[in-house]
Amino acid sequence: MSKRPDYTAPLAAEGVQNALRILEGRWKLVILFQLFGGKVMRFSELERAIPGISQKMLIQQLRQMEKDGVVTRIIHHEVPPRVEYHLTEWGQSLCPALDALLLWAENAPADIRAVLLSGVAAD
């Protein structure tokens, strides 16, 4: 087992920024939460499960997540072709981290939580 590197503050910040880039995008977290728990979903199921997402945007987000190693696409060669998506093991391992982030947000002071819930960023 390899030892984790000793991080300086700038290197740690850069590492977290790189990780967050994988999750950037309006719909990626919603897609992740749809697929957590080992779910395998067809494209059309995902589309129905995420109101407001366009087909084009769902395709873009899934392709990016596949490129980043978070999602796997399975193509079943039948007529009509069936395409399914599921999280990779690495993608599934995001669940505890996102749960911890959700818990952190839930424990914010009341005034901050009100801002978070309203969707307005404080400057």
From TrEMBL:
One Pfam family recorded for the sequence: HxlR
Keyword Transcription regulation assigned: yes
Gene3D superfamilies named among the record's database cross-references: Winged helix-like DNA-binding domain superfamily/Winged helix DNA-binding domain
Annotated ranges, domain HTH hxlR-type: 9-113
Alphabetical keyword list: DNA-binding, Transcription, Transcription regulation
GO molecular function: DNA binding
SUPFAM superfamilies given in the database record: Winged helix' DNA-binding domain
InterPro entries according to UniProt: HTH_HxlR, WH-like_DNA-bd_sf, WH_DNA-bd_sf
Record's keyword annotation contains Nucleotide-binding: no
Protein name: Putative transcriptional regulator
Species assigned in the record: Hyphomonas hirschiana VP5
